[in-house]
Amino acid sequence: MDLVLASGSKWRKGLLDSAGIPCRGVAPNIDEYAIVGDTPALTGAARARAKARAVAHAVGPSCLVIGADQVVHLDGVVLSKPCDVRAHVEMLTMLRGRTHELLTAVSLVRPRDEGFDERAFHEITLLTMRADLGDHELAAYAANGEASGCGGGYMIERLGAQLFCEVRGDWNNVVGLPLFRLITELRALGWRPAFAPPAAVGGGAG
User: Is 117 among the residues known to form the active site?
Assistant: First the structure.
């Protein structure tokens, strides 16, 4: 099964590569932020579908395209990328001491002569930010710029880990893809892994 990731994200590609799921990445040429649904889940689903379909048009019928979109929200209010440092601090302040959702919507699309075969799902991970973070700490993190291009205003797999006290759900989902659920869905479509033997370590007699 020829898998194509509809993304230019090195994080998502790296997750699949490390799990032994070979694929090639193709960045979709769409304005995803122009796509907005009535709920965070619908927004994510529509964006993931649009990404997958855009790439499916280009790669042909032999491929299964994986489209994904993350939506960070607090009580239904979507937290997009902060537009500047001040907005970044305000976003982090709003999250301080509270639990919010990170939702990743996934669309699996296979092009056909007419239309597409599609399979869609989403996964939610709950993240709780520390309540004892001082204003100066939040301001310093925002000024660092690490997560200025991230929804929610944090990068938990890096320095942003210091902002959080609990994560409930699939950690891979936070990094970029709900890996366990994705594997389940791929297996349902007939995909199976090819377990390569481990690479030789060292060599020769000691």
Answer: no
